Amino acid sequence: MRRRDVAIDVGVAGLVFWLTLAILADGGLGAATPDERRLDLFGVLLAAVATLPLVARRRWPLTVYLVTAAASLVLLAFGYTLDLAIGTGVAAYSVAVAHGGDRRPVRRWVALLAVAAFVPSMTVLYKAVGVELHEIGTEMVTTAAIFLSLWLVGDRIRLRQERIGALEEQARRAERDRLRERTLAAVQERTRIARDLHDSAGHAINVILVQAGAARLLHERDPERSRQAIGTVEEVARGLIGEIDRLVRALRDDGTAELGVPADPAALDELLARHEVSGLRIVSTERGVRRALPPSVAWSAYRILQEALTNAARHGRGSAEVGLLFGTEAMEVTVVNPVARNDGDGTPAVGGHGIVGMRERATLLGGSLDTAADRETFRLHARLPYHSPTLAEDPLPQRADAAVTGRPSPAGPEPAP
């Protein structure tokens, strides 16, 4: 139980005890009668039993009600004037909240009958001490109406608490589902990235084998070309080690990008052209000097741009502005497109797990991906560093041939040794 609830219950019990003492000391709510018993120590003790157990009304509501009801009836039996059993009423309300919708029928009916029996028990006690029923008719009707109202209010509060609890549980379940879906999307993206690494490593090893064979054959005949082949082997091996160190470090948790993605910047032009042919109006701008990109950067730029243009075509209004920046330390991709709106709410409709995958790619490279949407446009900006900030030296060679990029350029075949 929370401290706040305990403090509230202590305060309620103290207030009800004070009000009960005030009623008993004043001889009831009406005019005093000569035969009524004045408040004494025994009456104070009974008043305490009839009110102070309310401190535990949340933990044992039915038990507290039975104790307070019994003490109130004892007060009446000994002649004390208790026109309003406040403690018993508060306890009845707590019973309604706790047991009004109890799934155990026996407990629910016991609680209901216990509350319903209080007013008849008061009537029997008054009759036993010689009070005429017509003299207490108004008091009994009023007390019965108060107890009925308290039960109904408590039952409504219980229903409201159950609805709030169900909504909170639904929200928690939805959040768990969203987290599970985001995690699954990230894992799937990491799996594709790992496949990209596999392809890069396989191609680089093939290049190393070819160049090493050429170096062996040319060693005696053409030492200069043999040295060039050995230099190519060294560069490719260094680049491969860098790529493996870079991506495996990011994927070591439980990692998991995509087959057949060209690793040459010219592939981005082909991607833009394909989307234009499919009907998307594209305005593209390019800044900086194109350079050979590390495979992981080239593939991530390709996939991020591909996903962004797909979202622009699917959720936008047929156009997009694309900006490519080839900086000295990183490549940046920016896509801005007007967006369609969801029916009825006026908010932009933008993709699903695609953003998760794009952000995962950028993050694995030590970069970032930011998105922003308003009522008219959706903007995506990705920054992809050429080299991981965790590496002490640049492991990637800067040659523009296929041996550096790890895949053949779509612009032409791989040069022969």
Automatic annotation (TrEMBL):
Q: Write down what this protein is called.
A: histidine kinase
Region ranges (Disordered): 388-417
The enzyme's E.C. designation? 2.7.13.3
Q: Which organism is it from?
A: Plantactinospora alkalitolerans
Classification via SUPFAM superfamilies: ATPase domain of HSP90 chaperone/DNA topoisomerase II/histidine kinase (SSF55874)
Family annotation (CDD domains): HATPase_UhpB-NarQ-NarX-like
Output the Pfam families linked to this UniProt entry: DUF7134, HisKA_3
Mark the transmembrane ranges: 6-27, 39-56, 62-82, 109-130, 136-154
Give the reactions, separated by semicolons, that this protein catalyses: ATP + protein L-histidine = ADP + protein N-phospho-L-histidine
Q: What sort of enzyme, by top EC class, is this?
A: transferase
Lineage per the UniProt record: Bacteria, Bacillati, Actinomycetota, Actinomycetes, Micromonosporales
Alphabetically sorted, this entry's keywords are: ATP-binding, Kinase, Membrane, Nucleotide-binding, Phosphoprotein, Transferase, Transmembrane, Transmembrane helix, Two-component regulatory system
Keyword Membrane included in the entry's annotation: yes
Q: Does the keyword Membrane apply?
A: yes
Provide a Gene Ontology MF annotation, just one: kinase activity
Domain (Signal transduction histidine kinase subgroup 3 dimerisation and phosphoacceptor) ranges: 189-254
**Boundaries of each DUF7134 domain copy?**
1-161
